[in-house]
Specification:
The chain is built from 1 helix and 27 strands. It is mainly beta and 268 residues long. The protein has one domain: TolB, C-terminal domain (Neuraminidase, 6 Propeller), CATH 2.120.10. Keywords: Signal.
């Protein structure tokens, strides 16, 4: 079953932030936050805080499980991809400055790697290595101790990547297409139903993969057959995407209206 934006709101699956920043429940505790500025990368830490890279504001916002919102970091040029390591380290890509920062949990920042080419989405492979969708060089990189190394090349302006439990990969390309790489090296293009795949790509613990259609209004699930199915519609330029810690929902951030929606997976 797919959920429209109207259905998400009508079923009361949202929490909106009030003027004072406190959450107001409207039924089910799935969150809806408004007033985020061109949101891009998203991630949860072990305590359940949601971190959002707000490209338009040059900041990282942190949302507590009870809905409280605070600025975690600001003054950042073009923050895009965001990924949080198991030890709590927060990695953020600068699309504008071609680098990646790393933050400690208390907000201390330092430059992690430089010399990239419009880095977009960040994620971790199954070995815990940081992966970078390096848009301008049309490749996926891993960040090693001695610098970034090529992992997948020959892509079409990649902006997001995940590694699946079988050792394969799924890549979203903003230039067009969603590339599925099987463990045996085969490549399958699964993006025929997308207008423009965005950087929002999310992987559940059991291996389901979801990708936003930034050029459209949908979130779609990538199926093992190489096809896809629509699971949510009516979103205004969806871009950020993350699985909630309890694995029961996706949170999707929209660039068009600066809102974060909850898409319940238990209903799909």
């Amino acid at each position: 079953m797919r959920l429209s934006r109207r259905a998400v709101l009508a079923q009361g699956l949202a929490v909106s932030l009030g003027v004072a920043g406190r959450a107001r429940a409207a039924g089910d505790p799935g969150p809806l936050w408004q007033g985020v500025s061109a949101p891009a990368g998203m991630g949860f830490d072990a305590a359940g805080h949601l971190f959002v890279a707000e490209w338009g504001a040059g900041r990282i916002s942190r949302f507590a499980p009870d809905g409280r919102r605070e600025v975690f970091a600001e003054g950042l040029p073009g923050p895009s991809g965001l990924a949080i390591a198991a030890d709590g380290t927060i990695f953020v890509a600068s699309y504008a400055d071609d680098l990646i920062w790393r933050f400690t949990a208390d907000g201390h920042r330092r430059t992690h790697v430089t010399g990239l080419a419009t880095p977009a989405g960040l994620s971790f492979d199954r070995a815990g290595r940081l992966m970078v969708a390096n848009r301008r060089s049309h490749e996926i990189l891993t960040v090693e101790d001695d610098g970034p190394k090529p992992l997948i090349d020959g892509l079409n302006t990649p902006v997001g990547v995940v590694q699946t439990p079988d050792g394969g990969y799924v890549v979203s390309n903003i230039g067009g297409g969603v590339t599925v790489l099987r463990p045996d090296g085969r490549r399958i293009e699964a993006g025929q139903a997308f207008a423009t795949p965005g950087s929002g790509i999310a992987l559940t613990a059991d291996g389901r993969v979801f990708v936003v259609d930034y050029g459209g209004t949908t979130v779609r699930e990538i199926l093992r057959t190489g096809s896809s199915r629509r699971i949510a519609d009516g979103l205004s330029r969806p871009v950020g995407l993350v699985v909630t810690p309890d694995q029961k929902a996706l949170l999707c951030a929209t660039w068009g209206d600066g809102t974060i929606f909850r898409i319940p997976l238990e209903r799909l």
